[in-house]
Design brief:
The chain is about 40% helix and about 20% strand. It is built from four helices and four strands. Strands 1-2-4-3 form a four-stranded antiparallel sheet.
Length: about 120
């Protein structure tokens, strides 16, 4: 579902600080998927991000050192991630906007796989 302006602005601000945008190479395959990944220690905030990203799954990561906090992580990928990147792009700072544009450009220039027609 489409986000409203306030949701887009909130998600953009959160991802500006905590998000990662990249093309995830698929092992043993000749393609990559656009990814948005974000994590944090406040479950309610990550849950809100997950809802806006259209993702149900929160990954829990137990702290690895005593003075660290447990973390929750969420990601969106593929066409859905690109759609979100396009919506938040006007709100992003220069560094992340450049990265997002790079990911979108690579996704849009990917070769389209067509089925070869079977001879009759």
């Amino acid at each position: 579902s489409r986000m409203n302006d306030a949701e887009i602005a909130w998600l953009a601000g959160f991802l500006e600080g905590e998000g990662t945008f990249y093309m995830k190479r698929q092992p043993n395959k000749n393609y990559a998927l656009p990814m948005i990944k974000v994590g944090g220690t406040d479950r309610d905030v990550i849950r809100k991000a997950a809802d806006l990203l259209g993702t149900a799954t929160l990954q829990f990561e137990r702290r690895r050192k005593d003075h660290w906090k447990d973390q929750w992580k969420v990601h969106a990928y593929g066409g859905k991630a690109v759609e979100i990147m396009q919506q938040i792009l006007p709100w992003m700072g220069e560094r992340r906007a450049a990265k997002i544009q790079e990911v979108i450009a690579e996704w849009e220039s990917r070769p389209v796989v067509r089925q070869r027609s079977v001879p009759q």
